[in-house]
Design goal:
This protein has 190 residues and is α/β, with parallel strands linked by helices. It has seven helices and six strands, in the order βαβαβαβααββαα. The protein has one domain: Rossmann fold. Strands 3-2-1-4-5-6 form a six-stranded parallel beta sheet, with helices on both faces. Strand 2, helix 2 and strand 3 form a beta-alpha-beta unit.
Amino acid sequence: MKIGLFFGSFNPIHIGHLIIAETVLSDTDLEQLWFVVSPQSPFKQKEHLLGEYDRLRMCELATEDHDQLRASNVEFALPRPSYTIDTLTHLAEHYRDSQFSLVMGGDNLSQIHRWKNADALLRWYPLIVYPRREAEVPGGLQAKIEWVEAPLIEISATRIRERVQSGKSIRYLVCDSVRNYIEEHGHYAA
């Protein structure tokens, strides 16, 4: 099975993530796309990060009506901070009949040289990259890259959290089920 892995904190998952996922599924030969919820990224501060199980639950809610999308907690049991190459190695050992690709924005591609074992990652795993306005892709990358023309969506999880803190609506920025979960649990409120 061909599986795309979309890594992130998903704090919270929003419509932009889902639009990218749907575009990637329809424009490539992937059979599934997994939202891999990262408990702790080595590149992000943890201070505004909602608990990993709440972020996982929101991903489950956002993907529950789509057979090809899945929320994954694979990194919850791995050492922290989470490194993509370690997660891929773990998945390759446990899902021997699957072929994994990384789904990422062009901004992440421009920083991939900073990742742990970036050379091995680029050699062993295909990349599916969607454009980001601020992205500058470094020249000379030795990688199998498939570009997907996903819409540029100006939605950020940071802005969603700020709107919740200010008591403003986040309707249509997140799925209704995710919005209800945030409201019911008082997440991101001031």
